[in-house]
């Protein structure tokens, strides 16, 4: 027995050593470049094939082949990838979605190229570089790990590496050659990938699809090591390898037997599921730009009728052509699922193959009467029930997606895809299933016609989802999750809905695929297919149903008409190009031609400048927008009643110069504060704009008007005194008014550090309350607690008499607490009008004229895209979106950031008018002059505590004098 244990341990160490090498390679590449290299497994298989080519086919000596592959080809491949694919992405900001798409593109490209060059069948004669005896392999792993440790800890290069990892731009400013660091990281990562492939190939099947996946399952090891700790990666890899090996000894009877066998054979997949779904997310938890997924390739005119005719053509086919054609609508449905979840909702869904496979398996089992607990069903009923059963399983990816973004979400959905493939689809009960076609549809033509009908139905459903209110909400979610929540979009529910609908569509497609081919083949739905489909839909323009039709025709056509691997190689190549040139082929050609002329090298500095200029909005539009703002006069007229707290603009003694850090205004304001501008309709006050009479249904669904809903709200200056606030500990503020929004005793800790310590503020109707303080004082943290984006560790937040401490951000918005962002947030894929419409729709404001009035009031251009508008205009768009939901409370985090003096004056007048109309405002602001001009009450935050509160005239001079 002891010797069996020993033997199994040795076998496990051998597997673990290869996994450890993968882990080390992934960690080093990630540390050097910030990229989780999905192509690692594909590089491994490419190198393994190449060594076989040299040694077995061309009869080279093993040492020569190995030296050339591992010390020549692999690092050269890594360098080429860094130089040609990932460096331009890193320079342009390392958008994780684009980087991920590019690395999946490289994966698909290399896998396709391997299939093209060496065929899709498995090779059994890969040369053995190091014997199966684990000691040699372990020695290699230890040597590699120690070398990496020594280089990163003891050399200057290691210091540079750490600097680049911490902050690439900062490191570059500090003189570090980030490109060199990344190049070394890529070369080394590719070397370890090659070594892994060469070590594994003789002991597992060397085939273009299986081996890369095997290597990618091992990503769990790197995730468990938090993409950081080499020793953890090596330890986990060896432990899982040994445990997997030892599990083969157990042979329990009954139901546990197949389960244990499956787990024993796939312990790295279990580890992947745990690492991706249970451990804290890697790659940062923040919402990420999904620029790569929202790409729309505009359909040329007449594309839909042409597509319709092309899809009808196969009805005239016969024989094998028609048999091939039946796969197209089925695959189009699967790709359509990605249009919904990735294209429109912006979620990186790498596991759609799993849902297609489940749909196929369930439908086939049901139609054969082999589904546990259910009788045999006729084909159509089996199809419907399979879709209904799989749809809720969309929660498998939807639930992780609620908290995970970007890379972490990609890993989670990939893990689910791999898990379902290994534990459900590739099981003995699923082997050799041959479902009958539904009665009356045995003929390929009839079946194809049914598929077309179902595809049309699905296209109509997707069209409905992408249009109108739901379409705008999904686009907002895709563009900026926090912004969407702030506009009132129920982010979590919408994600769940998108994933569930996508699972249903994929299941329908998968079921049709199996019925069409009259067989269930788990390999048709393996995770590599999932990656290929994902890359294909992103390449063709994820947010467009036409892409699904085109993609399906392309993939099926290439698979049927060309050598195996051509489809994957084509999609991979396109994905790499799209990763680099997301703006499309024109941009690609332009950039390449500029480079060919030797003038277009994108430098760190050049790009940074462009990014900066882009943000402040240069060019004719930006300048004209700023001029409009200056010349157009204030957004609203003078307050109808006097200012409630009777302050006028501050004296010069109160504030430091406002122009610090702000664009200088070339034109004088030339107008007294609060006066109406020439372009503003004289009768249009902010509240009048928001609450202008509308149809009887105008406020349907709205909880209540301020006075009915919130004590004190809407009473404005001189309103009836409301009842006292219910807050347990009275917050600072003048007595006699009930706060619309209040917090008390707020405590927030980050990692044990107290950032807010018993803070309380009241935000009252018709008043501007300000919070000032030094950088890091805790202002934004307090703001997040009030807006609902952060739950305090202790304390209470109340809205009127309602405790909202645990109420989600979007729900607070719907109650009437609107906010803007310090880094302004607009939804770039929506027009200006639609940006505002999202706010109105989510606030259940059904007055059709409200958006138009807001557009007029804030003088923002409807129909325009947001990309080329100036910061000032974008701030007004953001404000308009916040106001569109008719909020009772408006929270503004540094609203003047990036504005010039004229724009600040404009904003000041608008905010004053809003307050005069009864809105409760809370401002976090460094600009003391603005605070003095606007606020009735000022709270000074220092080190997480409120150290002074009162009217600005009392509080601010002390601050200004510091
Ligand atoms: N998510 C977080 N994790 C850990 N620490 C955080 C986090 N968010 C904020 N902090 C820390 O909490 C403190 C308060 O941050 P906060 O952003 O609230 O300050 P602030 O007053 O808004 O500063 P600024 O004016 O620069 O925006 C800072 O020291 C910051 O580093």
UniProtKB/TrEMBL annotation:
Q: Where is this region: Disordered?
A: 613-737
Write out the annotated subcellular location.
Cell membrane
Please name one Pfam family that this protein belongs to. BPD_transp_2
A cellular component term, taken from the record's GO annotations: plasma membrane
Entry coiled-coil feature ranges: none
Q: Select a single GO molecular function from the record's annotations and give it.
A: transmembrane transporter activity
Q: Which residues form the ABC transporter domain?
A: 741-962
- Determine if Cell division is one of this entry's keywords: no
Q: Where is the composition biased (Pro residues)?
A: 719-728
Instruction: Provide this UniProt record's keywords sorted from A to Z.
Output: ATP-binding, Cell membrane, Membrane, Nucleotide-binding, Transmembrane, Transmembrane helix, Transport
Q: Which CDD domains match?
A: TM_PBP1_LivH_like (cd06582)
Cited InterPro entries: AAA+_ATPase, ABC_AA/LPS_Transport, ABC_transp_permease, ABC_transporter-like_ATP-bd, P-loop_NTPase
Q: How does it sit in the membrane?
A: Multi-pass membrane protein
Can you tell me where the transmembrane regions are?
Answer: 6-28, 35-54, 60-80, 100-122, 134-152, 183-203, 209-225, 230-247, 267-289, 301-318, 324-341, 348-369, 381-399, 406-425, 445-462, 483-511, 531-558, 565-582
Query: Which PROSITE patterns does the protein's record reference?
Result: ABC_TRANSPORTER_2
Name the SUPFAM superfamilies for this protein: P-loop containing nucleoside triphosphate hydrolases (SSF52540)
Q: What is this protein called?
A: ATP-binding cassette domain-containing protein
Q: Which organism is it from?
A: Streptomyces xanthii
């Amino acid at each position: 027995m002891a010797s069996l244990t020993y033997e199994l341990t040795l076998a496990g160490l051998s597997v673990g050593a290869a996994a450890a090498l993968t882990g080390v390679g992934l960690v080093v590449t990630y540390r050097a470049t910030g990229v989780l290299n999905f192509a690692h497994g594909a590089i491994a298989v490419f190198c393994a094939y190449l060594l076989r080519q040299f040694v077995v086919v061309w009869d080279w000596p093993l040492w020569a082949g190995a030296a050339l592959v591992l010390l020549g080809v692999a690092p050269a491949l890594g360098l080429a990838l860094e130089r040609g694919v990932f460096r331009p992405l890193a320079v342009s900001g390392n958008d994780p979605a684009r980087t991920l798409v590019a690395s999946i593109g490289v994966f698909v490209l290399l896998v396709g190229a391997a299939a093209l060059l060496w065929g899709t069948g498995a090779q059994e004669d890969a040369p053995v570089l190091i014997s199966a005896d684990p000691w040699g392999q372990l020695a290699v792993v230890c040597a590699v790990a120690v070398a990496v440790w020594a280089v990163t800890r003891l050399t200057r290069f290691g210091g540079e590496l750490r600097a680049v990892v911490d902050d690439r731009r900062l490191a570059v400013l500090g003189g570090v050659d980030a490109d060199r660091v990344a190049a070394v990281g890529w070369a080394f990562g590719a070397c370890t990938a090659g070594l892994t492939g060469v070590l594994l190939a003789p002991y597992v099947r060397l085939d273009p699809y299986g081996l890369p996946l095997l290597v990618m399952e091992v990503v769990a090891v790197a995730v468990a090591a938090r993409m950081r700790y080499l020793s953890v990666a090596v330890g986990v890899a060896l432990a899982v390898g040994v445990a997997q090996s030892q599990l083969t000894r157990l042979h329990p009877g009954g139901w546990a037997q197949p389960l244990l066998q499956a787990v024993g054979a796939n312990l790295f997949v279990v580890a992947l599921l745990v690492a991706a779904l249970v451990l804290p997310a890697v790659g940062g938890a923040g919402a990420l730009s999904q620029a790569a997924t929202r790409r729309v390739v505009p359909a040329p005119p007449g594309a839909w009728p042409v597509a319709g005719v092309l899809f009808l053509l196969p009805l005239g086919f016969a024989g094998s052509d028609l048999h091939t054609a039946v796969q197209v609508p089925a695959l189009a449905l699967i790709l359509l699922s990605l249009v919904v979840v990735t294209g429109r909702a912006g979620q990186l869904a790498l596991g759609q193959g799993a849902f297609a496979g489940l749909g196929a398996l369930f439908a086939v089992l049901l139609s054969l009467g082999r589904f546990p607990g259910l009788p045999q069903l006729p084909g159509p009923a089996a199809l419907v029930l399979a879709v209904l059963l799989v749809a809720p399983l969309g929660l498998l990816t939807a639930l992780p997606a609620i908290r995970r973004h970007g890379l972490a979400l990609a890993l989670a959905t990939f893990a689910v895809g791999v898990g379902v493939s290994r534990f459900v689809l590739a099981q003995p009960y699923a082997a050799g299933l041959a479902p009958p076609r539904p009665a009356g549809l045995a003929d390929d033509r009839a079946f194809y016609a049914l598929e077309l009908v179902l595809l049309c139905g699905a296209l109509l459903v997707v069209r409905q989802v992408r249009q109108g209110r739901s379409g705008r909400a999904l686009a907002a979610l895709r563009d900026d999750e926090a912004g969407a929540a702030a506009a009132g979009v129920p982010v979590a529910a919408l994600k769940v809905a998108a994933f569930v609908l996508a699972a249903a569509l994929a299941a329908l497609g998968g079921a049709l695929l199996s019925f069409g081919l009259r067989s269930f083949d788990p390999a048709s739905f393996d995770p590599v297919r999932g990656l290929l489909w994902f890359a294909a839909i992103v390449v063709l323009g994820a947010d467009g149903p036409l892409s699904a039709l085109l993609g399906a025709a392309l993939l099926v056509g290439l698979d049927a008409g060309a050598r195996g691997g051509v489809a994957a190689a084509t999609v991979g190549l396109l994905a790499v190009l799209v990763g680099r040139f997301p703006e499309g082929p024109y941009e690609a050609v332009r950039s390449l031609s500029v480079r060919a002329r030797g003038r277009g090298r994108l430098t760190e500095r050049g790009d940074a400048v462009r990014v900066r200029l882009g943000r402040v909005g240069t060019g004719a539009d930006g300048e004209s927008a700023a001029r409009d703002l200056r010349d157009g006069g204030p957004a609203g007229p003078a307050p109808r009643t006097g200012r409630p707290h009777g302050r006028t603009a501050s004296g010069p003694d109160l504030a430091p110069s406002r122009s610090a850090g702000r664009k200088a205004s070339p034109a004088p304001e030339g107008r007294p504060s609060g006066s109406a501008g020439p372009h503003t309709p004289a009768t249009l006050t902010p509240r009048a704009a928001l609450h202008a009479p509308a149809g009887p249904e105008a406020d349907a669904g709205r909880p209540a008007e301020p006075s009915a809903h919130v004590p004190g709200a809407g009473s404005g200056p001189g309103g009836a005194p409301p009842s006292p606030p219910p807050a347990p500990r009275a917050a600072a503020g003048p007595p006699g008014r009930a706060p619309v929004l209040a917090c008390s005793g707020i405590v927030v800790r980050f990692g044990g550090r107290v950032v807010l310590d018993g803070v309380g503020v009241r935000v009252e109707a018709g008043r501007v309350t300000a919070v000032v303080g030094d950088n890091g004082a805790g202002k934004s943290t307090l703001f997040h607690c009030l807006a609902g984006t952060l739950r305090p560790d202790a304390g209470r937040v109340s809205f009127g008499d309602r405790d909202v401490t645990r109420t989600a951000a979007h729900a607070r918005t719907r109650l009437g607490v609107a906010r803007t962002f310090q880094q302004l947030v607009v939804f770039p894929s929506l027009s200006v009008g639609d940006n505002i419409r999202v706010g109105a729709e989510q606030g259940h404001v059904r007055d059709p004229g409200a958006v138009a009035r807001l557009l007029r009031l804030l003088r923002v251009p409807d129909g325009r895209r947001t990309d080329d508008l100036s910061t000032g205009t974008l701030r007004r768009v953001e404000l308009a979106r916040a106001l569109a939901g008719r909020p009772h409370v408006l929270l503004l985090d540094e609203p003047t950031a990036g504005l010039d003096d004229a724009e600040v004056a404009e904003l000041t007048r608008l905010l004053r008018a809003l307050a005069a109309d009864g809105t409760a405002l809370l401002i976090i602001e460094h600009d003391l002059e603005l605070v003095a001009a606007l606020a009735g009450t000022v709270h000074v935050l220092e080190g997480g505590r409120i150290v002074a509160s009162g009217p600005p005239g009392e509080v601010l001079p002390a601050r200004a004098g510091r």
